[in-house]
Amino acid sequence: MPHNLESKLKSLGKCLVIAALAGSVFAAGASQTSWAAVTANRTTIYWANWGGGTIGDATLAGADINESLVPASGPVGVTVSGGYIYWSNADANTIGRAKLNGTDVNENFVSVAGEPHGVAVSGDYIYWSERAGNNIGRARINGAGVDNSFIKGAQGPWNVVAENGYLYWTNFGASDGSGGTTIGRAKLDGTDVDEHFINGASTPSGIAVTKSNVYWGNFGTSTLSRANVEGKDIKSSFIETLGAPGDIALNGSDIYWGNYGGGSIGRADVNGSHVSNSFIVGPNQPTGLAIATAG
User: Fold this and answer.
1) Which residue of 76, 79, 130, 280 is 20 to 30 Å from 68, comparing CA positions?
2) Which residues lie across from 129 on neighbouring strands?
3) How far is CA 278 from CA 93, 195, 251, 265, 293, in A?
4) What is d(CA 85, CA 48) in angstroms, rounded to the nearest whole number?
5) Do 18 and 129 fall into the same domain?
6) Average pLDDT for residues 37-43, to the nearest whole number?
7) How confident is the model at residue 241 (pLDDT cuts 50, 70, 90)?
8) Whether residues 137 and 69 fall in one domain
9) Percent of the chain clearing pLDDT 70 (strictly above)
10) Which residues contact 37 (CB under 8 A, 6 or more apart)?
């Protein structure tokens, strides 16, 4: 083969290899960009697996179920805020924190007392309910300034939420007991405490609040109840659940709940219609619920 032709063929071969490599890199980059874009817009539902010792997650469509996103120690409550998941470790007396994708896990983000169950975040503060301590605790969002007796006198509070400038909590039963019948409320600064804001609940567990309504789970009757935001117009059997219900979460026109006694997560229209108690099947005694959109 003439020397000059051999040289040209070698040069052409190198160009083809370089072009192929460049195409692969471009394709990989496009794939990564596409994946990141999808992830950034993903709406996720998180739950605490009390029986499994983990935080699980799935898309809000009920797909891509991961029962072990984050390890935990007797998790009950879970909430999301500022790109983080927060959960209560009832067995370790701590509040854990991780990024929404399950990385940067810190199971001892806040050391608390009284067997923490519910957890809520509002502004510069994180709040939790102490089932064994009969209190609502508070700390700064960075974990400092822990006050385990921020609000005293609750009756074995299971869960707590922050909405409308108030804290709301379910009084499951005094001193880690059961048989409670009330929903408590106080201002975010701990004043105007009303342990009987709503009466007539049946060992209330989870709770969620909107601008117009209060929803709670009844461990004693396997139902969800609803009242208006003033605590009136109570519908005791608003939704029938599959076994004792855990926490409640709302997203747009949908309501979700953990079937603690049924090993599933349920969903319905927020008006109580189109009930499905098997929206997500497989969670292990699901308690806390939270919903977040990444990005």
Assistant:
1) 130
2) 136
3) 31, 34, 18, 6, 23
4) 11
5) no
6) 65
7) very high
8) yes
9) 86
10) none
Q: Give pLDDT, residue 175.
A: 85
Domain region containing 66? 44-293
| CA 169/CA 155 separation, integer angstroms | 10
Same domain, yes or no, for 102 and 18?
Answer: no
Paired sense of beta strands 254-259 and 245-251, if any: antiparallel
Whole-structure pTM value: 0.86
Which string of b and e fits 52-76 if b means at least 16 CB within 10 Å?
bbbbbbbebebeebebebbbbbbbb
Residues 69, 7: one domain?
Answer: no
The answer to whether the CB of 269 falls within 8 A of the CB of 253 is: yes
Give me the pLDDT at residue 135, please. Answer: 97
Q: What mean pLDDT is predicted for residues 96-109?
A: 97
- With H, G, I as helix, E, B as strand and everything else as coil, classify residue 150: strand
CB-based contact 74:287 (threshold 8 Å): no
Domains held by the chain: number: 2
Look at residues 111, 125, 55 and name the one whose alpha carbon lies nearest to residue 87: 55
Q: Are residues 210 and 256 in the same domain?
A: yes
What Rg, from alpha-carbon coordinates, does the chain have? 24
Please give the mean pLDDT across all residues of the chain: 89
Sheet (strand 204-209) strand order: 204-209, 213-218, 223-228, 235-240
d(CA 170, CA 68): 27
Apex CA 19: angle with CA 18 and CA 22, to 5°? 85
Task: Determine the length of the chain.
Answer: 295
